[in-house]
Amino acid sequence: MEKIRYFDHAATTATKEEVLKEMLPYFSLNYGNPSSMYSVGRKSRKAVEEAREKVAKAIHAEPKEIYFTSCGSESDNLAIKGVAYANRERGNHIITTKIEHPAVLHTCQHLEREGFQVTYLNVDSDGLISLEELENSICDETILISIMFANNEIGTIEPIKEIGEIAKRHHIYFHTDAVQAIGNVRINLKELNIDLLSMSAHKFYGPKGMGALYVKTGVKFEKIQDGGHQERNMRAGTENVAGIVGIGKAIELAYQNFEEYNKKLTDLRDYYISQVEKKIPDAKLNGHRTKRLPGNANISFKNIDAEGLLLNLDIKGICASSGSACSSGSINPSHVLVAIGLEPEIAQGSLRITFGDDNNKQDVDFLIESLIQIVEKLRK
Fold it and tell me: Which of 100, 101, 136, 213 is the Cys-Cys partner for 75 at CB 3.0 to 4.6 Å?
């Protein structure tokens, strides 16, 4: 059987053995409900709070500012809707961008149907917003700015610190979807004017179905899910103790090994991009060349359909994508690539490669040689 070479770490990552090992006891041995008062429940509660401390420490927050959720999408929903509903008397205007993840875009569209006004900022050809356009979009009714830390498709990292400064100056809450940034970018919330931040464990070698939301002390937001009083009455539902233990361990490992891991990814990324640009004609890098996630390389191939490209790669045991896994059912070109100005026929020939722990130079060489052959065959 052909060896599987996985190059889609922006879609998901494998749960690390060290993470799984810490999680396992909370499925069957320490199975107590953390809301229970007896000793079995107290063990689970202790594990939950220890994980909360690990998540907080990794991003320089306070444990009481971390709320556990089921995923990044839920965190985005809770952040945006929670702030919008709680601050409606102050205003009804939200600012976001045209290249956000569907969890943000669809949440904003939902709020528009409820009477909120949303401004969708443009981005330049590299995927960067204009700080001037952001400032000019602010009005008396603006209550929230929601701009992703780094784009999941093209890897561009936005000017988060400057956005936060603008938001603070105008007394507006700032939320960032940092799902792709955690583990790939150092995040010090003591130095950034971020009020809310979303993350998802399975993007940094933790379990699927586990997320977290940072909410700065003093931010006014509402719960959007009714039920029990878990997570300080802001997120109802029995805690996923094993998953919470998993996200705590995963984020701890991510920042323990940060320098070595990201140097490896950057080296693989830059090698791959240089070889593809050198050896395959009409290959265009999408996103900013340097202000990008260390493991992301999104390249468009002229006169190529991504579906055919992906099918041929799959035959060779190569896993890649044409964009966000959450949009894989769409036949339309990526909204991100359209927003940066790519013609639809070029956008539909885009391949997103995202590197991770399990990749090495030999795998990348195999990927490059396979791409050369497949692109030549498809163009014929």
Answer: 213
How high is the mean pLDDT in each 10-residue block of the chain (380 residues)?
Answer: 89 98 96 90 95 98 98 98 98 98 98 98 98 98 98 98 98 98 96 97 98 98 92 91 98 96 97 98 96 98 93 96 60 88 91 97 98 95
> Would the CA dihedral through 309, 310, 311, 312 be positive or negative?
positive
Catalogue all structural domains in the chain, each as residue range(s) with its CATH number: 5-13+258-379 (3.90.1150.10), 17-256 (3.40.640.10)
For helices 258-279 and 241-256, give the axis angle rounded to 10 degrees: 70
Backbone angles phi, psi at 355, to 5 degrees: -85, 160
- The catalytic residue among 71, 108, 319, 326 is 326
Structure tokens given for 219: 């931010």
pTM: 0.95
- 326 counts as catalytic: yes
